[in-house]
Amino acid sequence: MRGRQTNQDQREKLLLAGRIAKEARDRGIMLSEPGVRVLDVVDQVEELIRKMGGQPAFPVNIGIDAVAAHYTPATGDSQRFPPRGILKFDVGVHVDGYIADTAASKDLGGSNNLLVSCSQSALEQAIETVKAGISLRYLGGVIERTIQSSGYRPVTNLMGHSIERYNLHAGFSVPNVSDISDGTVPDDIVIAIEPFATSGKGFVVSGRIGNIFSLVRRKKLDDASLNQFQEVIDERYSTLPFAERWLGEFGNRTHLLRKLLRLGILHGYQTLIEASGAPVSQWEHTLIVSREGVVATSK
Ligand code: MN
Ligand code: MN
């Protein structure tokens, strides 16, 4: 499962996942307008991913204003996009476990918002700068200064990350500020870079569990329905994040999910919210970094 990411077959799957993720993200941003039902957009985008030959690598994440990450609608969610607000639309796609993770932001009911554009510029600057061997202090500094030059703050406790097969957060972090890590970007790695900018304090705190879960480890239990539920989750999603609404055929899924959470078999993702309640913007691309150069798969 682990190891070099860049043999030809693996590279083609990474590139295909990236192309699908780009389409899905752009469609999502286009469809997300004030008054439109959030769940309708999310359903359409996840359907598009499957139609194009991928699978969602995680449920579409919708973050509005201070909600920075880890929210997805539940079954039957009637929430609509508000008349005004900063939307983050974060999409993951995998092809045979090879993942692309990408996000964009949009100023609902407005246009040309500096908060939206400064994290986009920071991402573009970071992609120009990144290469195998570069210092994370330097790379993080580029992101930090780009955001600060527009008068905003980077979110310090949200970071980019390495990606491996069926592993969205594979252990290596790419900070959005200069003073978090002394490391360097390794050769032959897949990373997501994701600057977050805010007018608030510049860090996020955890909120409630937001309809997104992942399998930690299966356990044989004295309950056939719980065992079958674990098996379905394992076969469909492996350890990748999944949504409650993807398990619609289990009428008692809320109960099953709660039980498996309590037993530590599942992890529940808490929504991440800007500490002062201020709006947050985010842009993200997935990159293959090697001595031969950098390819942004989702661009
Ligand atoms: Mn990411
Ligand atoms: Mn993402």
Automatic annotation (TrEMBL):
- EC no. given is 3.4.11.18
SUPFAM superfamilies of this UniProt entry?
A: Creatinase/aminopeptidase (SSF55920), Winged helix' DNA-binding domain (SSF46785)
A single GO molecular function, which one? Answer: metalloaminopeptidase activity
- Give the binding site residues for a divalent metal cation 1: 90, 101, 284
Name one matching Pfam family: Peptidase_M24
Task: Report what the protein is called.
Answer: Methionine aminopeptidase
Originating organism: Candidatus Sysuiplasma superficiale
One Gene Ontology BP term is: proteolysis
Establish whether keyword Protease is in the entry: yes
The role this protein plays is: Removes the N-terminal methionine from nascent proteins. The N-terminal methionine is often cleaved when the second residue in the primary sequence is small and uncharged (Met-Ala-, Cys, Gly, Pro, Ser, Thr, or Val).
How it assembles, according to the record, is: Monomer.
| Cofactors (names) | Co(2+); Zn(2+); Mn(2+); Fe(2+)
